[in-house]
Backbone:
């Protein structure tokens, strides 16, 4: 379901005030419609990982499609006051906004694609005022969904083929923190969600067990299991740790045995506390002894990729992982630091722009950038960020942004493709949004094409991704020139 | 603006699947309408702090007011399939849900109130099915907004009277992660937000400066400042670190001097990188030398309560703090671990319920709980959680949950009030939602009534809050009895 079907309010004010003050300034200077190029990118993989899974484009597209100031929005802006009580904006500017139609070109990396630092995930080219205005919502949407998709991919990797269920709604950061994260987690690797509304809106498979309160509501644990088993003869997962976990497992088994003649299928048990390794091993033994070899052991309780790996190494007998807080909030790094930077502006000719930083690697890249990915039959080899406005050398070099003396030339015969695809042309959406299962499948393929040393979630190898040599040199020259000018 | 005006979709499926499977189970067992009591509470203050600011009640009330399964919701539930392709729910149950009207009593702590571990923030009493169903959305809403309000309160404390602006939208966890956090941050202590939609929806003051891209879009920094100053002669804050910060300050000053004859008021400069202490001191000196004593120095860049305190101790000359990522996501603890536990169920008589845990302090509390707060003229003295169904002793004792040998009797003459107030009676809302300025003012008063040792944001003293002695003894007896039963 599209954003515009979920929200009844216009989302056109979903941006920072300063986007509107700058818009007003550009408009007053007659610069509002000067053509400009911005790139949205991040500088560092989240979670200390070796790759990032792009997500959020669908919501970004829907936001842009609906971008149109409503009368209500305009009235709000008209009423904004400055510090001395004066109107912040002239009425003529408000009228301009009211007539504004989004008319930018947008190119973006499809959801589920693996991406690397400095690579534009979204490129916006069009009137300066508009391209600036959309900065904040694009960042909010892409930063968050990319973060969660990446977290989920790491957790799914750690689970090594086991089922992973997203259980985090109760700890999510607000309603959309739960909804769009459930979608992003599904893209990244979660197999299902407990969030019914996400199931309904995005057609994600939903899964669940029962709570402790279910057991507490009955006189005995046996009564509780039996009642649940009768309600769901084919789909019962009994939560066994309300009182004493291993006693709970035994009671679950005896209830399953009692209900079996009526066609009951013993789906699983869930462990939610205690020593998950020991308890799962004991539970597996009890289940196996009773002949319930196919009964799953589901675990939950503050799981993330690190704990799952640790439990597996210890020999835990868990085959379904219910992951909550740590996935839905990306607990160990709850924000991706994506930025949105001006890279070129046209005043007759294109002028390139960079934002200086104390660190070379953090200085933004000038141009109208595209990313070329080189690959062979088995895997992705290297990515090269280049300026579409400049001719490419016959044998381009890729300069490592963290060590500019490391330069790579891609092996002969490597194929390549461009990562940014057209999404809007002059404000018209020309991109067919893939359905969610396709995006999920794309993610899986993408990750499978990375060498396992890059997929390692701690201390991974670094995938070769950098600037095309001429672009790198041009940027260096620009920095030196700007520093000289600025220090005068 | 109410949730139902923001969302066009029904939010009745905004819950975990297992709430519906349990609902179905209760319905099948004829237990759906058995009266039950649940409490929503947290076990530990976030961020290692000494107090927590309750928030989210308004959204919780709006969610409950709108709780009604739509035809669309019912169709979705009808179509849910079990693992063998069979419908998960019987049609008769779907019809039951379709006719269901929310009919619980809800009592809650007003937004902005300071609260302590184990104290119910929300108490729901009513038909078991309904009271269970609302668990997840109440947790999502209250956990998140309480977390952010508390974070903002800590940051405002650290700022010691300086202005704090919430700047975090671009790093927020989704659209509502930005919106409801902007509101919660305002409740907790932020003075304004950069988020225009939050400004529009909740009538929060909006503030902003300009971005680096504004400066980059012009030939020179001077041109950029001059253009901005002309657009906002009374409200300009110049971002000075695009090229070289102190050169930027000098340029801002010369532009301000140039524009002054036209009535320009030099609002401020913003620092967004580098050594904020050194730069702010130098900037202050430059501004003062030029006679701009009232010009603010705004700082941003990964600020939180710790960094603000550190900068102040170092003598930074900053008087407006733009706080982004660390506040909007509560970066150092992005989830409050609030829980929702069954505490009593009526089957003829009330039966008390607890959820055992390996730690006594984590075991839930039985009864229909209320919180009594004792206070004198100056400050809050102690909180006592007690069971409304049992008579209170004349001189009640408060038992420290972390050391049950510590018992406190409140000083004679102390006044007291009950924290939970009626919000819904038999499903009808009977609570007048306070307006946002009142909630914000309430927070400020609440925090001012805590001893400063409790307000200290690192290693605070612990405010005396615990169980009334009889309730404590009753709980102990219940635990021992349950453990005996469970180990049999």
Residues:
């Amino acid at each position: 379901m599209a954003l515009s079907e979920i929200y009844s309010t216009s989302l056109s004010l979903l941006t920072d005030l300063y986007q509107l003050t700058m818009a007003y300034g550009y408009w007053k200077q007659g610069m509002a419609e000067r053509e400009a190029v911005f790139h949205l990118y991040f500088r560092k993989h989240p979670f200390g990982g070796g790759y990032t899974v792009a997500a959020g484009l669908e919501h970004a597209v829907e936001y842009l499609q609906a971008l149109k100031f409503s009368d209500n929005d305009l009235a709000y802006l008209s009423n904004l006051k400055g510090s001395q009580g004066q109107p912040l904006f002239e009425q003529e500017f408000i009228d301009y906004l009211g007539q504004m139609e989004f008319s930018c070109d947008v190119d973006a990396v499809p959801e589920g694609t693996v991406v690397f630092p400095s690579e534009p995930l979204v490129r916006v080219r069009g009137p300066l005022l508009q391209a600036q205005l959309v900065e904040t919502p694009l960042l909010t949407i892409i930063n968050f969904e990319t973060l969660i998709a990446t977290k989920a991919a790491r957790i799914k990797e750690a689970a090594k083929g086991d089922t992973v269920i997203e259980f985090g709604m109760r700890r999510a950061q607000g309603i959309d923190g739960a909804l769009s994260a459930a979608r992003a987690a599904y893209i990244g690797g979660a197999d299902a969600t407990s969030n019914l509304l996400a199931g309904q809106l995005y057609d994600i498979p939903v899964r669940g067990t029962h709570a402790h309160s279910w057991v507490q509501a009955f006189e005995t644990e046996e009564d509780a299991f039996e009642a649940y088993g009768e309600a769901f003869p084919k789909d019962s997962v009994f939560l066994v740790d309300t009182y004493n976990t291993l006693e709970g497992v035994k009671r679950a088994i005896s209830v399953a045995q009692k209900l079996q003649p009526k066609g009951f299928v013993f789906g699983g048990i869930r462990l939610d506390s205690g020593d998950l390794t020991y308890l799962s091993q004991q539970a597996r033994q009890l289940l196996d002894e009773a002949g319930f070899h196919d009964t799953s052991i589901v675990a939950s309780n503050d799981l993330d990729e690190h704990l799952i790996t640790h439990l597996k190494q210890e020999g835990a007998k868990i085959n379904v992982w219910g992951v909550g807080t740590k996935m839905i909030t990306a607990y160990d790094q709850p924000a991706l630091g994506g930025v949105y930077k001006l890279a070129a502006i046209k005043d007759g000719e294109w002028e390139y722009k960079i934002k200086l930083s104390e660190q070379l690697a953090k200085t933004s890249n000038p141009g109208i950038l595209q990313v070329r990915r080189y690959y062979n039959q088995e895997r992705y080899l290297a990515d090269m960020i280049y300026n579409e406005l400049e001719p490419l050398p016959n044998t381009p070099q890729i300069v490592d942004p963290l060590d500019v003396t490391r330069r790579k030339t891609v092996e002969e015969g490597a194929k390549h493709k461009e990562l940014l695809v057209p999404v809007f042309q002059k404000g018209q959406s020309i991109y067919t949004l893939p359905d969610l299962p396709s995006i999920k499948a794309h993610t899986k393929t993408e990750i499978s094409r990375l060498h396992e040393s890059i997929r390692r979630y701690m201390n991974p190898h670094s995938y070769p991704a950098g600037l095309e040599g001429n672009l790198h040199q041009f940027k260096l020259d620009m920095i030196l020139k700007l520093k000289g000018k600025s220090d005068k």
